[in-house]
Design a protein that fits this description.
The chain is mainly alpha-helical. Helix content is 76%, strand content 0%. The protein has one domain.
Length: 139
């Protein structure tokens, strides 16, 4: 396989990862925004400080960050923020029952690792960043 094919496959791989992560977080963020009172109560029950404000921060970060990842616009920062959200989710909701056979734990770990990978690799060639001549979201 030549370098051109490898580059194309790499860019397609990044696109597929961005679509998966972007859609998951857009849907999760939209759900939180449409049920923000419940999210605020849930965060309060978990003992998250400033639960009312943090619910909005998480919901907006997931929704807007998910959109940015989906289209490939400056993906490093939103992916790091989304990874942080996943770390907090794991520590606040899964750590006591950390069971790798649990679907919830596996999904959270996958989302954490994929967001970190995208933060390291950037947007790829099929992205808004590429169309704007950016280096894949490192700016």
């Amino acid at each position: 396989m030549n370098d051109s094919n490898l580059s194309k496959n790499y860019d397609i791989g990044l696109l597929l990862l961005r679509i998966a992560v972007g859609l998951v977080f857009v849907v999760a963020g939209w759900g939180k925004l449409n049920g923000i009172e419940g999210v605020q109560g849930f965060f309060g029950d978990l003992g998250i400080p400033m639960a009312g404000i943090m619910a909005w921060v998480v919901a907006l970060t997931e929704f807007v960050g998910g959109l940015m990842v989906l289209v490939g616009f400056k993906v490093r920062v939103p992916n790091l923020l989304l990874a942080f959200i996943m770390v907090v989710a794991i520590f606040t909701t899964k750590l006591g029952d950390f069971d790798i056979s649990s679907a919830g734990v596996r999904v959270d770990l996958l989302m954490l690792l994929i967001t970190l990978s995208l933060a390291l690799m950037g947007s790829g060639g099929y992205s808004v960043d590429a169309k704007m001549g950016s280096s894949g979201g490192s700016d």
